[in-house]
Structures are given as C-alpha cells and as structure tokens.
Design a protein that fits this description.
The chain is an all-beta fold. It is built from no helices and 8 strands. It folds into 2 domains: 38 residues, no CATH class; 64 residues, SH3 type barrels, CATH 2.30.30. It has a 4-stranded antiparallel beta sheet with strand order 3-6-7-8, with no helix packed on it. Strands 1-2 form a two-stranded antiparallel ribbon. It is elongated, with a radius of gyration of 15 Å. This is SH3b domain-containing protein.
Length: 110
C-alpha cells in the first residue's frame, strides 16, 4: 500500500487495469483502487435540493442499507453534485460543522 484515499474523494478511471481504478496522487505517485470498493455516480450540474422530511439520513452508498454518514433536518438545503438513480451525492457540513459526504435519497429531498 502506498497511500490512502479519503472517503468522498473523486477518482477518475484512467482505464489501464481491468477491475481497478488507476488513481493519481497529488505528489505524482500512481496507485490502484479495486472497483469493488468504489461507488460510481454521474456528475451533474450542481443544484440545490431541500430536505422535505423531519430527518433525512446521508448514506455511504446510494442505498438505505448502507451505513449512515450523518443526517439533515427538514428544510435544510444542500448542493447535489452527482446522481445515482434516485440518489443525490452531496458534500456539506452539519450544524456542528462536521463534514457529511454521501448519498441523500431523492424521495426525501428535492
């Protein structure tokens, strides 16, 4: 192992090795991440979405069966940066200033 990539880091696939993402570190090193641990989503034009329920969870993967990375309260507006099915990929902070990155369901925020 030559390094670690933080959750929520965007890794562009350079497509050189089957089943792996080729990752370029800022210092010039090149590493490989297995695609089995990568969650892919489509980049979208950033747009604001507002939580419509009392409490909405932000999940590590675009599924309610994933682990929750945090939650947002009703009327919180966040910027969606990507989409996977009905799930938005977001990166924001909670009321205490803690970073929250992950997927917010389009059924609870629009």
């Amino acid at each position: 192992m030559i390094g670690q990539v933080e959750y929520g880091t965007i890794a562009q696939d350079h497509g050189t090795v089957e089943g792996w993402i080729t990752y370029h570190f800022a210092d010039g090193r090149i590493g490989y991440i297995p695609k089995t641990v990568i969650t892919q989503y489509e980049s979208i034009q950033p747009k604001n979405v507002t939580v419509q329920v009392d409490k909405a969870y932000v999940f590590a993967i675009p599924s309610a069966s994933g682990s929750a990375n945090g939650s947002l309260t009703k009327n919180t507006t966040v910027q969606a940066l990507g989409k996977s099915g009905q799930w938005y990929y977001i990166s924001t902070t909670d009321s205490q200033g803690n970073a929250i990155k992950g997927f917010l369901s389009g059924t609870v925020a629009w």
